[in-house]
Amino acid sequence: MLRPEYPIMTDRLILRPFVDDDLDALYSIQSRPDVARFLYWEPRTREEVAVALRGRLAMTKIEHECDTILLAVTRAADGVLLGDVNLRWTTEDHRGGEIGFVFHPDHQGLGYAREATTEMLRLGFEELALHRIIGRLDAANTASARLLSRLGMRLEGTFRQNEWVKGEWADEAVYAILWHEWREMRLAD
């Protein structure tokens, strides 16, 4: 079980549950074609983002297998919503989890996604006691693949034409890191 104490602070960021007032900022992210390009959905309308936001409001704790924490990532200096990160408990028996992230393109390349996603790995390994955490992505999403590699995750496989997404077959890449690899990496810092 994982019930983090919010907000979670990193060097430059605040990770917190989503709130109703995040609608405009979330819309500015999810309505963009360049954001939706590698996701399962097309750019969203304001109404679609409002529905998505309602679903996010309760995603603040993990109590059971398949539960997800999905957090807003804001810049501590000014409170600007930069994107979101998530941690999903995929299997209790095998102590597995999955991370994900979506950031506004204007805030990419500044280390924010790495900083926020590192915290999700920490929560998964150090608080939820997971053994293995994966990241799945469209294999064409090279920017996200680079981030997963910088987090210490290794490419474990690319599944050719694994999913039918937006009217075409897409390759899926799976990256992973194990608890002992995470611990060794943290001790080396």
Topology of helices and strands:
Elements: E1 8-9, E2 13-16, H1 23-30, H2 33-36, H3 46-56, E3 68-75, E4 81-91, E5 96-103, H4 112-127, E6 132-138, H5 142-150, E7 154-165, E8 168-178, H6 179-188
Parallel strand pairs: 5-6
Antiparallel strand pairs: 1-2, 2-3, 3-4, 4-5, 6-8, 7-8
Helix pairs in contact: 1-3
Question: Could you please describe the fold and organization of this structure?
Answer:
The chain is an alpha+beta fold and 189 residues long. The chain contains six helices and eight strands. An eight-stranded mixed sheet has the order 1-2-3-4-5-6-8-7, with helices on both faces. Helix 4 links the parallel strand 5 and strand 6. The mean pLDDT is 96.
Give me the CATH fold name.
Answer: Aminopeptidase
Number of strands: 8
Tell me the name of the CATH homologous superfamily: Gcn5-related N-acetyltransferase (GNAT)
Task: Report the top-level CATH class.
Answer: Alpha Beta
Form type: globular
* Contiguous uncertain segments of 5+ residues: none
